Amino acid sequence: MYVCLCKAVTDRQIRESVAGGACTFADVRRQLGVATQCGKCGQMAKSIIETTVKKAAFEHAV
Ligand code: FES
């Protein structure tokens, strides 16, 4: 689904960015341009990044 309509960024792209090494909102923002216009998508993007990072850390620990 589209998370950022201004930059046409999807949740999948955000997860792929994290899988590719982005660890923070700033990293993903820099890579994809998410939340760089109206900013309404910022909270949703942060939530997806946080969940993805935690899931990756959990899977790495198991
Ligand atoms: S919806 Fe992402 S910057 Fe506007």
User: Which small-molecule ligands are present, each listed once?
Assistant: FE2/S2 (inorganic) cluster
How many domains is the backbone divided into?
A: 1
Shape: elongated
Contiguous low-pLDDT stretches (5 residues minimum) are: none
List keywords for this structure.
62 residues, two-stranded antiparallel sheet, mainly alpha, single chain, binds FE2/S2 (inorganic) cluster, Arc Repressor Mutant, subunit A, elongated, 3 helices
Describe the structure concisely:
The protein has 62 residues and is mainly α. It has one domain: Arc Repressor Mutant, subunit A (Orthogonal Bundle), CATH 1.10.10.1100. The protein has 3 helices and 2 strands.
Architecture overview:
By secondary structure, this protein is mainly alpha-helical. It has one domain (2-61): Orthogonal Bundle (Arc Repressor Mutant, subunit A), CATH 1.10.10. It has helices at residues 11-19, 25-32, 42-61; strands spanning 2-4, 9-10. The protein has a two-stranded antiparallel sheet. Helix 1 (11-19) crosses helix 3 (42-61). The radius of gyration is 11 Å and the shape is elongated. The mean pLDDT is 95. The site of FE2/S2 (inorganic) cluster has 12 residues, from loops. Residues 4-7, 34-41 line the site of FE2/S2 (inorganic) cluster.
